[in-house]
Records
---
Amino acid sequence: MTNWLTEAKANSPSRFSARTLHSVALLTAAAALLPIAGCNRGHSADVVATVNGKAIMHTEMDKAYQGQLGESQQQPSPEQADALRLSVLRNLIDEEIVEQRAAKMNLTATNEEVDAKLAEMKAPYTEEQFQEKLKASNHALDDVKHDIRRSLTINKLLTKEIDSKITVTDIDVTSYYNKHKAEFNLIETQYHLAQIQVTAVPSQQPVNLQGSKATNDVEAKKKIQALKSRLDSGEDFGSLAANFSEDPEAASSGGDLGFVPESRLHADHPAIFTEISKLKAGQVTEILPLIDGQTKKPIGYAIYKLISREPAGQRDLNDPRVQQAIRQQLRDGRSQLLKAAYFEMLRDQSKVENFFAEQIFKNAAH
């Protein structure tokens, strides 16, 4: 899907991020190790793989492949393209495996759940604007609903099978703190910041939920001023950042930049430091120039929020923020491990036939 529809697919269990062509090329070598057995079995040319007898169509793979390429100016070689298709197809296979498991457990997202999520996605637009977005993205409404259903289904399955079974006890938290006490000793003041940025760089791809992107300075200034007005009216900073910020690294997390040491902030961005140092926790700056780190020239505009200012010193275990951070870290780590093991178990229990991989091997062998 294009960026404005990213939310519908954000929680895919083994979603592949866009890979560099170099790393993708490595997969081509791996393809040569695939077993040759079954290469001559009969199947429709439109089917690239089956999962427990359920077909994955060539059109599905091609659509996902084009989504990975996006608007990249660099075209892959035939070998690199096939390697990326193998990667994309593996993702589709994994998703199909998980969807089938969810169906067996009666956890497939209902029509009502899909419609509710679709209504949430359409909320910022008029019906005409939404239809224009669909047309521009070259996707039908059924495509959107399909991805929403898959995402919701996978989330329901993982919540039941993984997240609901993870427990972090007080003993776990205490043990972690005692082993990593130095991590909670700040040697200098830290600023927990969030950012909304808008650039005038036309080539940068949109990275926010709305696919919103300014293409010149006039658009960038108009957009950042509109966002500042919405902030002043009381709208949530994180929500606006997720939907409209053009920061490729922080937009998806509500603009959260994490903790920045005072010395680094002062050295790298003295003007920003001056403005942030005036804020109380929860307040935002005025619109500030966004400076390119290499050229030191303005490339757009930004608004910063001071989430908290953490003075230097040892953080005690009784600090609720310390406990929350430890619990979340332990939960995330366990969840990641269990999900990886769970997906491997599901793959082992499934019968997968990858005709596309077999065809690549067959063609390379002649």
Note: The first strand starts at residue 47 and ends at 51.
---
Amino acid sequence: MSFRKVPGFSPLRATAAACLLTLATALPALAQDAINIGAVLSLTGANATVGEDVRRGVMLGVEHVNAKGGVLGKKINVIVEDSGGNPTTALNAGRKLATVDKVPVVMGEYSSGITLPLAQYLVKEGVTHLNISSSSTKIRQLGATSFSLVGLENFSNRFAAQDTYDMGYRRVAMVAPNNAYGQGVLEGYKAEFEKLGGKVVTEVLYTAGQSTYRRELQQMSRSNPDAYVYTAYGQESAVLNREAEELGLRKTPWYAILMSMSLSDTPPAIANGQLGMELGSVQGPAGKAYSDAFAAKYKEGFKTSYTGYGYDAVLLTAAAIEKAKATTAPAIQAALKDIGTAGYPGVTGLIRFDEDRQRVDPPYDKLKFADGKLAPR
């Protein structure tokens, strides 16, 4: 047999092209071997410590599900996008996950001011949104495809107000970030604290990203409060805490709302002695097993209380897909509602949803920072 010579033809090139064509047609089949879901996390920026902690929890969840055989006979995979702590970046990440990766579920973000626009877009697109870190009560209004694994501010503000009142504080000065989360904490805590008989004598909303907060701190100190009550994001909180120490304000008690977030980037020598409250981290035997697995894999314990919520989000999604026997967003959402009504035993405790798909009876911890770490008090 002979070949007619064709100008520009090479048997070697033809063979290579055929191989590439075969590989290209095989790639979709390979992609279909995994069920993709998405996550938008703050891996850089002011909340990078929290974001990385949550990412580790998410990855442990993926490992756990896949070690048990995956979902519907397939591996589960989480496509993680970095928001950089920026709402525009987070929204672009959400668009990519929804339109390019076509995931049925997206978990995230962290700051309520970023979560709200991200989730509004996802809900509009019909993508399932899992809130694993944000507490603004505005999240309740997002719509029927958004679910919260964490408690919203109405629970945490009531808990913090009662806790500070029980410690004997009657006149407090407050500082919080000037965004949806911070405004909600300031207004909600104040309402609950004053309902008990206390008084918020100074209110300050700080602007993110400043190199100094001395003016805000001096404004608060002029009211001579019994205690300073604050909530702040990691790197900004580090500036607040350092300057409070330098100004001598730490002679008065400091109470942190969401303590692991507020102290994640503050040096232990400055953080020592602070009191506060936090989302319930891990609960019961399941939580202990998760904590041990986390320490074994990452050679250290978690730095914040949010990592378990990322882990639970992966396992809850897997359970919903198994229950639905489908990977479409509407089927997953229906299954989540059913599971949330009965209650899901997560590492953060029993996860149950109310009629608005928000977690009920969320756990909280009373903490102190001593000997370089957070501990129960």
Note: The first strand starts at residue 34 and ends at 41.
---
Amino acid sequence: MTGAPPPTLAASPPPTLPAYSDPPTDAVLDSGLLHELAHAFGGPFHFLLPQRFDANLAAFRAALADAGVNGQIYYAKKANKAAVWIERCAAGGAGADVASSGELREALGHGVRGEDIVVTGPAKHEELLRVAVLQGALIAVDSLDELDRLLALARTSTVRPARLLLRRLPPAQPHSRFGMTAPELEAALARCVRAGDAVRMEGFCFHLCGYAVQPRADLAGQLVDLCLKARAAGLRADRIGIGGGFAVDYAAAGDWHAFLAAQHPGHYHARKTFSAADFYPYHSPVAGAGALRAVLVAVPAGGRDRLGDRLRETGTLLLLEPGRALLDRAGASVFRVRGVKDRDGYAILTVDGTSLSVSEQWFNSEYLPDPVLVTPAGRAPGRGVHPACVGGASCLETDLLTWRKIPFPARPAPGDLLVYPNTAGYQMDSNESPFHELPLPPKVVVEPHEGRPRWRLDRHPAR
């Protein structure tokens, strides 16, 4: 490829991508608490804002209520391991979506009732199936093999029938490893009918990649038809599960599109290359509970009625499993600057943690919302451009929390804090490990109390 060389950093300042301003987060940044906690822990930490989780849960419930649809919301526990979210589910009557024996124990141990738990994931372990049946959890069955194992277990249970959903392979995503084809579902229904009272077949579900509204509504409409067919065969089939996939809107549209248009390899350490397809869509015009509202008013392909109307008319319950969307603006990650090294017109910062604590970096991507520079005197003021990438404390060349040369408003200095905003959803702990014998960053629950933030450690045991 020929042509003019890319513009230099001086001629083309690195683009910025500020996250939306968030008053509860700003109150913590401005309180002076973060430097006290950094001193106490001697390393990176995450802070969590449970009131945000409660507000997001209420918004999803309002979307269901406004559409006149009966539904149940299950928090997708894999999005963040903290116990506080499960505590909020138990207190607020929400459920939990789990995929392992450990997650099931955590949900039960922090107060979520067995009947308010849905067990997902492929090829579930026998122990997971056994405890799920004993506790009355709803089990999403992914294959005929798994169904046969569950039926065998259910026939020996004297406590209660096994509650299950049958997972549909999305026809538009035939290469997905999740779900059953149409012929396999036919066989599964026949086996459920033959099992009689040993099982309670409650409906269908799917796992669908992507955030588009219409495909989710289309497949949900197909599941409603499957429920009607199953009811005709004598099965309960009164609910459908549409999973998660509700996008989070991190940044304003103008900032996001300007960033994508401006960014090029010269804006990254070592000229690291990313394309727009590598990034999460950090701006989404339809997000969170708004995305659910859009799904409910969409008309499924081949139908005439809105999905919400169809659910209501057929008496079908809607099950949701949001994770990231319930954690929107519900926490941030804090790293202390250890050192600053100048390099060719920008700085390389080294912080006291690793990129294992910002998970996007481990998927050949980048967590793009700008970290906030907080000095001992408060948030750094100014309109300067002090570009710096952010490296971790390990001996790995690729251990960068941020490859991008972030245009900080002031020159970072050792002892300053970098606060990565809105990291509660999938960023904090998906890949964390005690590499180099570094302890896992603690999670701190922060709540307002008498005009100031009050904190406690999360009750999830460190591993």
Note: The chain has two domains: 23-49+332-457, 50-249+284-327.
---
Amino acid sequence: MTRRDLTRRALGLLLPALLSLITLPAMALDGDASAPIEIVADRLELDDQAGTAVYSGDVDMRQGSMQLTGQRVTISRTDQGEVSRVRATGERAYIEQQPSPEAPLVKGWGRTIVYHTLERRVELIDQAELHRGRDRFSGARVDYYLDRRLVEADSGVDNDGETRQRVRMTLTPQQ
């Protein structure tokens, strides 16, 4: 099998998984659901049997108003081919999305970001920070539930029972 045939086969296997991402962000801008998914990286490793696609090297993933960046991004899918989880890692992995035209832009950072697509929940882990408009949340871990617009933050505890990073929150009154 030629390299070109392998590339076509890999794209044929990966495309259905990536296209299933299109239906996930129900709370995002109307155009997001029909926008193409674009991923740029230095390397791709596709394992169809495991249901994973691993991108590495300055990864930039975009769909409509959503952007996800990191040094490594792993997309996992269920046996039915639905994307179940997108995990980004790096010194400062980043995610942003415009939930709706009237809502403020949501931005998040962490050394690890896990987007549980079926739950519509984003986990920001290790030096986590979430900006929702002018409101700021930080801690060792911050979870954001997209549909409910719920934020949960945790300070985290190390092996000795010591707090790693205190939870901080800044709420800005509406004008």
Note: The two ends are 63 Å apart (CA to CA).
